[in-house]
Design brief:
Layout lengths: L45 H11 L2 H7 L1 E4 L16 H9 L5 E3 L6 H16 L8 E4 L24 H7 L2 H18 L3 E2 L23 H16 L11 E7 L18 E3 L2 H9 L2 H5 L4 E4 L3 E3 L2 E2 L2 E2 L9 H11 L5 E2 L11 H4 L23 H11 L4 E2 L5 H8 L5 H17 L10 H7 L3 H13 L2 E5 L11 E5 L3 H6 L3 E2 L8 E7 L27 H10 L4 E6 L15 E5 L4 H9 L16 H6 L29
Parallel strand pairs: 1-2, 1-12, 2-3, 3-4, 4-5, 5-7, 6-8, 7-11, 14-15, 14-16, 16-17, 17-18
Antiparallel strand pairs: 9-10, 13-18
Helix pairs in contact: 1-14, 2-14, 3-4, 4-15, 6-7, 6-15, 12-13, 16-19
């Protein structure tokens, strides 16, 4: 563990505001002046410490606090590559641009990540005021991973995707997950979770469906609030040992026409009615009630509803004062940090608007300034700050903020408001007193067997059994089984004999996933997201495997659903249908054999056809024609030992 600098001379304890301090044997001389300043005194009230530090900051240092940058790795300024941070580049961000909030994208072992974060905090401690860094992350505990939005690996315990928790609907399970994830994050020196998504999932084709809690606004609200409670370690805001949550994306993100995502130029608009908008807002209520430390506005431009009787200005939420200052801070009473989504102040050049094979969109051409495309960067920062933004995600240059102040577009008083919020959170989490972690302990805590055992149990319980014709499940071990997209070793471990041809089998198990298309292959995110169709078709390889198997033996089909799948083409061939939301082969096989019980219920309805999807309103939950399976569908069997 890295030791913080300690000075223990009682004669030096002079308060910055005058008067002698009582002896205080452990403190960190963060501004290197040889005396105890009020902001360095752990005994002083947080507001006092914030005021003292704010008074010592230059305008340039304050401007840097409004940026939430990325910890760079060698060869990658946005940290997508490499196993260590770029120390020289990080030092420049800390000392020259005065940034002290960063997302980490490293995927390394827990002890290595802890060591890297400690080294980065040592660089922060050496800066003029020694302001510790807040380190954030996208989700790391789930199966789904999309570059730039979520990740997996690095030894963290592996749980179902958020929809799996929605399928169980059990607040205690969500709270337990949040508490374990909290401990794992803090063990490696991560302080902020850029999650959960409290987005109401109303458009079935939307690529970010899997990270939501489904389509029922009350359930989304309840479970997202419990998630916040688990991560922050309490219902009254973040505690010193908690992880600050940034709930996203305020508001209406899940209602995008055709499911096209707001990271992309072609997905920058969403149309909602007043009634639908109220449901999307409702999904955030419980997160606000338990005082989530942060809120992240959506990328999209919301069209249609009125706020306080006025039409919403056609700019993205990060620039929208009605949505942030009026609705979120005013009507909802939110007093925490508002962190913009990434890159809203960056330009969207031709390779962002309409990339092609010869000129594809790369990270260098990612920009999401929707509604402010023609404005310059100074105007975008000024618009965002005046709207209510406290920090700009993915930004690392304070010059436009300083320019906005110099031009009178933003006052220093307004800057101070945001800086106070950023500093307060650092003090609440104890970072000024000790931002370092025990690297050896990180290896013991992260992904420990007890945590993974609980995660494995949720992988099993969160599955949904939709069909079980002729009591196909459970299947007794010892049977001969034909597999498709299932690890043979896992099946053997479950007690089956694996065969090479369905004609030799007693039973078949096929794993598949919701179909998708890559409709925008030259856009950075469009190339990685699942868009378009949801229906299985005869020429799909997995459908052909199901047809081959079902011609000979009873066939069990397990469908991984990151979006609501249309099962019409495969249903007649499946003797049993299981829905998963992030589950290992071993977890699926335990449900097949009855060693575990699938307790889930669908957290959204399943449409009968793509035409039905196109007929529905993208802003309303489960509003299309009569579904194949309604929200809440699921069959509960007994385990082989008689337990339910």
């Amino acid at each position: 563990m890295v030791s913080a600098r300690r000075i223990a001379a009682a004669s030096l304890f002079v308060l910055a505001l005058g008067g002698a301090a009582a002896p205080h044997k452990d403190w960190r001389d963060l501004n290197h002046n040889g005396r105890l300043d009020r902001y360095e005194d752990s005994r002083a009230p947080i507001d006092t410490r914030v005021t003292d530090l704010l008074g010592q900051m230059t305008l340039a240092e304050k401007a840097g606090m409004l940026l939430h940058g990325t910890l760079p790795t060698p060869g990658s300024s946005i940290g997508f590559a490499g196993k260590v941070y770029d120390a020289d580049a990080t030092a420049k961000l800390l000392n020259e641009r005065h940034i002290s909030s960063f997302i980490t994208r490293l995927v390394v072992s827990p002890s290595e990540l802890a060591a890297q974060n400690n080294a980065m905090q040592k660089l922060a401690e050496a800066s003029r005021l020694g302001i510790p860094a807040t380190i954030s992350t996208d989700p790391r505990h789930h199966f789904q991973a999309t570059l730039g939005a979520s990740t997996t690996g690095g030894g963290f315990s592996l749980w179902p995707d958020t929809l799996g928790f929605a399928a169980l609907g059990d607040a205690n399970t969500v709270r337990r997950f949040g508490d374990i994830a909290r401990q794992e994050y803090r063990a490696v020196g991560i302080h902020m979770a850029l999650s959960p998504q409290a987005d109401l999932a109303t458009e079935p084709r939307w690529p970010r469906f899997a990270a939501t809690f489904g389509s029922d606004p009350a359930e989304v609200s309840r479970l997202a609030g419990t998630y916040v409670e688990g991560f922050q370690h309490g219902r009254t805001g973040v505690r010193a040992d908690g992880v600050a949550t940034v709930v996203k994306h305020w508001v209406g993100y899940g209602a995008e026409p055709e499911g096209f995502d707001g990271h992309n130029y072609y997905g920058r608009n969403a149309q909602l009615s007043d009634a639908a908008f109220a449901q999307h807002v409702r999904a955030f209520d419980d997160s606000l009630a338990v005082r989530s430390a942060g809120i992240m506005p959506t990328y999209v431009i919301v069209h249609g509803p009125k706020i306080a009787g006025k039409a919403i200005e056609p700019v993205a939420a990060g620039f929208n004062k009605q949505l942030l200052t009026g609705l979120l801070r005013g009507e909802k009473g939110f007093s925490g940090l508002i962190v913009s989504d990434w890159s809203i102040t960056r330009d969207c050049p031709q390779a962002c608007v309409a990339p092609d094979a010869a000129n594809p969109q790369t990270p260098a051409s990612i920009g999401t300034p929707w509604g402010m495309e023609t404005a310059d960067k100074t105007a975008r920062f000024a618009k965002g700050i005046e709207a209510g933004i406290d920090q700009f995600g993915g930004a690392d240059d304070p010059a436009p903020i300083l320019d906005a102040v110099a031009k009178g577009l933003v006052s220093e008083t307004r800057i101070d408001e945001s800086v106070r919020r950023v500093l307060r959170l650092k003090f609440e989490q104890g970072l000024f007193d000790n931002p370092y972690v025990d690297e050896a302990a990180a290896a013991r805590i992260v992904g420990n067997p007890q945590a993974q055992q609980q995660a494995d149990a949720v992988q099993r319980a969160s599955q949904v059994l939709l069909r079980n014709d002729r009591a196909t499940l459970p299947v007794a071990p010892g049977k001969r089984i034909w597999l498709h997209n299932v690890d043979a070793a896992a099946a053997r471990a479950a007690g089956f004999t694996v065969v090479e041809d369905p004609s030799e089998a007693d039973i078949a198990l096929v794993r598949t996933a919701t179909p998708f298309e890559t409709l925008h292959p030259h856009h950075f995110f469009g190339a990685r997201q699942h868009e378009g169709r949801l229906d299985f078709r005869a020429d799909d390889k997995d459908v052909q495997a199901i047809a081959r198997a079902s011609a000979d033996v009873p066939t069990i089909v397990a469908v991984e659903m990151d979006r609501p799948a249309i099962l019409t083409a495969i249903e007649p061939m499946a003797r049993a249908l299981i829905v998963t939301f992030g589950a290992s082969d071993a977890a699926v096989l335990d449900v097949v054999t009855g060693r575990a019980v699938a307790k889930g219920r669908l957290p959204f309805s399943l449409p009968r056809s793509l035409a039905d999807v196109e007929a529905q309103s993208p802003d309303l939950p489960d509003d299309g024609p009569a579904p194949a399976y309604p929200r809440g569908a699921g069959i509960l069997l007994k385990a082989t030992d008689g337990r339910e």
